Amino acid sequence: MFSDRLSSAAHMANKVWFADVEQNLYLSTNGGVTWALGQIAVGSTGDFSAINSIHFTDEENGWFCTKASLYYSEDGGNNWYYKTTLPDNSLRRICFFNNEGWVMGEKIIYYSSDGSNSWQAQLQVDGEEKLVSISFVNRSNGWALSESGNVYRYGIE
């Protein structure tokens, strides 16, 4: 059933979600005993390439990013809908706390304070440096890592 090229995973209580680079989203509501495929809304626009990152804030509300677009689910990952496309064409990671979210590209991190309705650039790196990961403990304490070994403490005060 599963592709051999998985790209991202998320879990919350007994629910588990993961994505593969072939644009499939898998959902288990019983801790991985059985699996179903999530559905991307017919007529969704935006860039629908490989799914790079998936994140849930609770058992119902989740987001995923492709290299340029964001999609969301309000029903636990059963159905997904296009939300927006950002100017960066290298989105890699997405993270949310309640209604606040961050999306990381190779050279930029975007922030949304309104559930992904609007985004603004917050952190940009220069030259050959590329961001590879973001992680947050809470909205005020996060870190961004770069390929060259730099660590950026990050968050909203």
Structure write-up:
The protein has 157 residues and is mainly β. It folds into 2 domains: 1-85, Thrombin, subunit H (Beta Barrel), CATH 2.40.10.500; 98-157, no CATH class. It has no helices and 16 strands. It has strands at 6-12, 15-20, 25-28, 36-37, 39-40, 53-56, 62-65, 69-73, 79-85, 93-97, 100-104, 108-112, 120-124, 131-138, 141-146, 151-154. The strands form 4 sheets. It has a 5-stranded mixed sheet, with no helix packed on it. Strands 1-2-3-4 form a 4-stranded antiparallel sheet, with no helix packed on it. Strands 10-11-12-13 form a 4-stranded antiparallel sheet, with no helix packed on it. Strand 15 and strand 16 (151-154) form a beta hairpin. The N and C termini lie far apart (44 Å).
Structure summary:
It contains no helices and 16 strands. It has 157 residues and is an all-beta fold.
**Tally of discrete structural domains:** 2
Number of helices: 0
Main sheet, how many strands, which sense, barrel? Answer: 5 strands, mixed
With strands numbered from the N-terminus, the spatial order across the biggest sheet is: 5-9-8-7-6
How do the SSEs run, as a string of H and E? EEEEEEEEEEEEEEEE
Average pLDDT figure: 87
- Beta content comes to over 45%
CATH fold-level topology of the largest domain: Thrombin, subunit H
- Shape label: globular
Low-confidence stretches: none
**What is the alpha-carbon Rg in Å?**
15 Å
* SS elements, strand count: 16
Helix content: under 10%
- Structural category is mainly beta
